[in-house]
Design brief:
The chain is of the alpha+beta class and about 150 residues long. About 30% of the residues lie in helices and about 30% in strands. The protein has a 7-stranded mixed beta sheet with strand order 1-2-3-4-5-7-6, sandwiched between helices. The radius of gyration is 15 Å and the shape is globular. It starts with a strand and ends in a 5-residue tail after the last strand. Bound molecules: coenzyme A. Coenzyme A (COA) binds next to strand 4, helix 3 and helix 4. The site of coenzyme A has 17 residues, from strand 4, helix 3 and helix 4.
Amino acid sequence: MRRGTPDDAAALAALEARTFAHDRISRRGFRRFAQGGNVLLVAVEAGGRIAGYALLLLRRNSRRGRLYALARDGDAPPGTGRLLLLAVLDEARGRGLRGIGLEVRPDNLPARRLYEGLGFAPLDVVPGYYEDGAAALRMRLDLEEGA
Ligand SMILES: CC(C)(COP(=O)(O)OP(=O)(O)OC[C@H]1O[C@@H](n2cnc3c(N)ncnc32)[C@H](O)[C@@H]1OP(=O)(O)O)[C@@H](O)C(=O)NCCC(=O)NCCS
């Protein structure tokens, strides 16, 4: 596990294209997100290939982060996404964040299972959230002080 850099942008955009049909982050988007102010973590296999990534967006003057993206490459080991999310939670606690929010497609059962297992609770549904018009389920995790 390491921090993503602007040099990872092409590989991350390719992973994104293999993983998502809509709402993809572009190469330029990854370059920008890697330039600081946010938490971009990548999981790397022994040969250096990127197995997955997680992106937590941070805002100045806010102690809540937003998990903007999380993905494991299809042929990377199951559980890679979970390791990435655990690393994000560690990072968030280390930075003194009070909570993390995210949006997920209600029918994305692997992702929901992962989030619920780590304590994220459903908040509400946002109609028409995704590019294809699908609704999003918003979820939130409160990070207790000292936890
Ligand atoms: C969500 C994601 C990051 C999780 O990665 P991961 O930690 O490697 O975990 P897996 O995909 O192996 O599975 C996560 C959980 O879902 C379960 N699961 C897998 N397929 C499932 C299915 N079809 N239906 C229900 N549950 C399923 C797994 O058993 C696991 O639960 P467990 O840990 O309680 O056994 C990964 O599935 C992924 O990249 N998906 C595509 C991108 C995506 O949807 N990202 C999230 C956007 S909000």
